Amino acid sequence: MSGERVEGATHTVEVAAPAGVVFAVLADATKLPLYFSPNVHAERLDFDGGSERLRMWSLLDGQLKSWTSWRHLDAVRRRIEFRQEPPASPLTSMNGTLQVTERGPGRTELHLRYHYGVDAARPADRAWAQRATHDTSLTQLAELKSYAERWTRLDDLVLSFEEAVRVHGPAELVYDFLYRAGDWPDLVPHVTRTDVHEDTPGVQRMTMETLTEYGCHTTDSVRICFPHAGRIVHKQTAPHVLLEAHTGEWSVLPDERGVTVLAQHSVVLREDSTAVLGHHGDLAHTRRHVREELGRDSRALLAHAKRHAESAVRML
Predict the structure, then answer these.
(1) The organism sits in which domain of life (predicted)?
(2) Whole domain around residue 252: which residue ranges?
């Protein structure tokens, strides 16, 4: 008869940033996919000011896993307790704490402790769990340190915006165009190639090549599709050369007069873009350039989604 084998680990990192900044980065669930490369998407299901329940999608050891996570946020003690319920397979349990401790002016220690369970009769699951939890923890701690230590510049490095279009056509046809990204190279001039794989229904892995004034850029993305809600969220796992991170969402919002379609983007800019933009590669120019390029590309896709839906209506 098999049972649960429980293992765990602890990791500590020193961060040259105020403790309040470190805690704030960890506590903002909506920004987790933007700041931490393994995290693809986080949906807040419940929040009462101190405790929250999140639906998480993350890449663990190259595999996309999903689970519900409970977190208790203690801002006074700067402590976050977490528990997966239920955990991502093949884990049978997962819980832990993040403790942020001030060690001096602008000096902070972040201590991560976690425990996880696996089926004792499945050694392959144990090996995967050890590898995935260890690698993911070290990656997230390193990225937390990187972002927190740039806290005085984060407002300039992070950019969020949206584009919108009104469509007088069925919401289902708009969503259909956005979902079928494999067809975009035949329809959208700036998209030269897309490779889309959907091994799990509603979860797409996509490689896309786009044409810009500086040549062709290739990006890799994970797209999570919610057809009943008219939403497609995405995270670039290999982002544009000017970006450290890129998350976004397509939203199809019907009302009594038609449909509003939104393209939302959040990005973290690379601080040195001279290799791409030449002597104009300062942060302010990079910020304007990324806003213009992503906005232009989004508007082009939105225009084709509008045409796709409205042309079908005229044909009927």
Answers:
(1) Bacteria
(2) 156-315
Q: What is the pLDDT of residues 155-203, one digit of tens each?
A: 999 999 999 999 999 999 999 999 999 999 999 999 999 999 999 999 9
Q: What is the pLDDT of residues 105-148, one digit of tens each?
A: 999 999 999 999 999 999 999 999 999 999 999 999 999 999 99
Q: Are 168 and 46 in contact (CB under 8 A)?
A: no
Do 59 and 195 lie in one domain? The reply is: no
CA distance 14 to 145: 8
pTM summary value: 0.93
What's at 8, amino acid-wise? G
Q: Does one domain contain both 104 and 193?
A: no
Ranges of beta strands (E only) in the chain are 4-15, 39-47, 51-60, 63-74, 79-84, 93-104, 107-119, 158-167, 191-200, 203-212, 215-226, 231-238, 243-255, 258-269
The tally of domains found in the chain comes to 2
Q: Report the 3 state secondary structure along 88-103.
A: CCCCCEEEEEEEEEEE
Claim to verify: residue 52 and residue 160 sit in the same structural domain: no
Q: Can you give 125-137 as a three-state secondary structure string?
A: HHHHHHHHHHHHH
